[in-house]
Amino acid sequence: MKILVTGCAGFIGWKVCEFLLRKPELIPGFQESCVESKAAQKVLSQRGSERNKKGVSSWKEILLARSQAQWEKENFKVIGVDNMNDYYDVRLKEWRLAQLKKFPNFEFHQLDIEDFPSLHQLFEKYSVPQSPLPRRERNKPALSKVEGVRVNGVIANKLSSSQLKQSYPSTNQTSVPFSAVINLAARAGVRYSLENPFVYYSTNVMGNLNLLELCREFGVKKYIFASSSSLYAGQKMPFKETLPVNEPISPYAASKKSGEVTCYTYHKLYDIDITILRYFTVYGPASRPDMSPFRFISWIDRDKPVIIYGDGKQIRDFTYVDDIAIGTINALKPVGFDIINLGGNEPHKLIDFLHVIEKYLNKKANIVYEPFHPADMRATWADISKAKEILNWRPKTKIEKGIESAIKWYIENRSLAAFVKIA
Predict the structure, then answer these.
(1) How many CA atoms lie within 13 A of 119 on its CB side?
(2) Which of the ends of the chain has fewer CB neighbours closer than 10 A, N or C?
(3) What letters, b where the CB count within 10 A reaches 16 and e where it falls short, cover 344-372?
C-alpha cells in the first residue's frame, strides 16, 4: 500500500502524513490489507494446522505474530511531494518535513505539481511490473491537448504530440503506483490571490489537472481534493454541500471551484473515486503564519500590535488540525463522488478566539483595527451532517484545548516560531 500526499510540508499535509504514518490502522481497508498480505499469509502457513482449524479471528492476531511495525516497513509507504515554495517562511515547512523524515516508511520528493513531466516520472518510479500476470494496456494521455504544462521550460501546448511523447516514457507495462492520491498541494490565502491570481490557477487548477490525468493514465482509482469553505461566500448558514457555490469572491475561491468541477469530470469520464473536502479555518501547532491563529500568538508573545481587519466580530468555524487529518484519512473510503464539509461545527467570533489566546499566554493584546478586507467572508459555519454519516467523523477538539496545544508548540519551538516572518 502506497499513498501519495502532495503538499506534505504544508500545515494540513504534514499532519495528514503524520497520522498516516503513526496510525495507519485509521486507513479504510488497512486491516484487510494486513491480513491479505504475503507476509501475513506466510505467518499463517507457519502456524500449522492447529491455527488453520481455529481460523483467523481478527487482523490483530496476525500482527501479534509478526509485528505491525515490520509489516508497515515491508508493505506500507507514504510518498510526500512538496515544492517548498516561499509563499511563507520556508523554515516552518522545513521543520514539518524534518518531523516526517523520522519515519522510515516516509519518502520525500521535492517537486511541483505544475511540472507534469516530473510528476510522470514519479508515478513511473512507484509503478511495479505486473509480470507474470498479463500486463494491461492503459489509456494514453491526450498529449496533443495538454495545455499550459511546462516541459523542459517550454509550454506544452507549443510542442507537438511527438515531442511530448519523448518527454516521458510509456506506462503500458506497469501496475498502479499508488493506492490513493491525496492532493493537498495548493496556493492558499484569500488576500494574496488578489495580488497574484496567476499562481493560484497554475497550482490549484493546472496542478490538480496534472494529478488527475496521471491517475487516469496509471489507473489510480482513489483521489482526494482539498477544497475550501471560501466557496460558500454569501450563502445561508450553516453551509450545506448542496448549496450553489457559483459566486466566488476571490481568485482563490474561484480556483478551488475550478478544481472541484475538474474532479467531477474525471470521475464521470474515467470512474475515479473522488472525495472533495471543504476545510473550515484550520488551526493548531505549526500553523501557517499568514493566518490569524499563528499571527495572534506571535504578536502577543512578542508584544507587537495585533492587527484585526474589521471589528473582530466576524465568525469562523475553527477546526483543529488533528481532527482535519483524521477526517481526511477517513475520506479514503470509496464514495463514488462526493463533496464533504470538515468543520468544527462551533463558530466563534474572531475577537473571542483572540481572548482565549490572551488567557493561555497570560498577556493582553494591543489591538489595532484595520478596514475589513473585501475578499474576506463575514462568517463561516459548516453543516457536518454528511461527514458524520459518510465518514463517521466529527470534530473532537474544543477551541480552548486546540489553542492551548498551539501555544504549547509555539513556546517549545520559540527559537523557530518567534522568528518566523509573519506573512
Answers:
(1) 30
(2) C
(3) bbebbebeebbebbeebbeeebeeeeeee
Q: What is the DSSP string of 189-256?
A: -HHHHHH-HHHHHIIIIIIHHHHHHHHHHHT--EEEEEEEGGGGTTPPSSBPTTS-----SSHHHHHH
Asked if 2 contacts 79 with a C-beta cutoff of 8 angstroms, the reply is yes
Q: Of the listed 88, 168, 200, 252, which one is catalytic?
A: 252
Burial per residue of 19-38, b for 16 or more beta-carbon CB atoms within 10 angstroms, e otherwise: bbbeebeebeebbebbbebe
The pLDDT tens digits of the residues spanning 254-303 come to 999 999 999 999 999 999 999 999 999 999 999 999 999 999 999 999 99
Highest mean pLDDT among 60-74, 91-105, 243-257, 364-378: 91-105
Element (H, E) at 416: helix 414-417
Give the Å distances, CA to CA, from 231 to 199, 235, 236, 365, 376: 18, 9, 12, 31, 11
Specify whether the CB–CB gap between 178 and 220 falls below 8 A.
Answer: yes
316, β-bridge pairs: 348
Residue of 183, 222, 182, 239 whose CA lies nearest to 206 = 183
Task: Give burial (CB, 10 Å; 0-12/13-18/19+) of 197.
Answer: middle
146-182 b/e (C-beta count within 10 Å ≥ 16 → b):
beebbbeeeebeebeeeebeebbeebeebbbbbbbbb
**Would you tell me how many other CB atoms lie within 10 Å of the CB of residue 104?**
11
Residue pair 372/365 in contact (Cβ under 8 Å)? The answer is no
Q: How far is CA 168 from CA 110, 121, 122, in A?
A: 18, 7, 11
How many residues make up the chain in this entry? Answer: 423
Task: Determine the Cα–Cα distance for residues 219 and 33; give it in Å rounded to an integer.
Answer: 19
- In one-letter notation, the amino acid at residue 251 is P
290 contacts 373 by C-beta, under 8 angstroms? no
Asked if residues 119 and 111 have their Cβ atoms less than 8 Å apart, the reply is yes
Q: Please give the grid coordinates belonging to residue 402.
A: 486546540
Cell of 247: 459566486
CA distance 193 to 216: 30
Instruction: Determine whether 252 is an active site residue.
Output: yes
